[in-house]
User: Fold this.
Amino acid sequence: MRPLYQELSFLPAKYVNVYKEELPHFIVPWHYHPEIEIMYILEGTGVRFVGDHVENYGVGDLCMVGSNLPHEWRNDKEFFEKEFNLRSSCYCLFLFKELFGTTLLGMPEMQHIRNLIERANRGIKFTGKAREEIGMKINEYTKENGAAKIAKLILLLEYMAITDEYELLASIGYVRYALDSEDFERFNKIYRYIMKNFARPIRLEEIASLAGLTPNAFCRYFKERTKRTFVQYLNEIRIGHAKKLLIEDKLTISSISLDSGFNNLSNFIEQFKRSTRMSPSEYQRKYRKQASSAVLRICQQ
Assistant:
């Protein structure tokens, strides 16, 4: 499925736009736009797509997405069902590329921010204490007006630029294949299929046929674009789904193993430890507590 081009309906005279979105679930599908976007989740859970990176998100999730990088925050299915009465909300900052003209970005003092914008071409997820600090700065920024608002923005971007608590999301291979590439449609078809079917066994011959390649050619093709083997990538998605279920604490660990596509409990525990350096039960205890703390912090802002 090719991402939709989204033309944002802001006044062209405004180079920075911020709004708070509050809905039962986010409504914008897989899309891209020339504006740089900063997305800060206040309520809601689901799956985040940034380029070829797929990961669960929750309250406090904070990312920066570069110009024309396809992305989507897709809520969990419960958010689409009225009886659950769930809400999704976020702060979105859109930075128009004209803001970063050669005069401003060319200044030596802007070197860190230039580097930040370059990194954002792959998408950036902020982590740790930096994520909390950036979240507070975004909240403060939304309350400012006039010149103070511009000053707050520069300080926000500078902080985002100098922290080392971040992860790059989309692979180098994915970014290298631009939106107008003939290859784009094929790759998106592959990982959409993986997302739809990861809970069941997916044979290499099956996914290779979908791409119109032999199994050996598919393995080379996939690793060239993701820097991971197909099995590694599939396991990452399955582990990500398992993390979400562990935090929700509604199923037994053996049921979570099956629901995530692992037919063997021992293999699930082994793969989970390899990915997180924790057993599923250890992860559940640690991150259930952290999720509760994150909700409390957001409510107090």
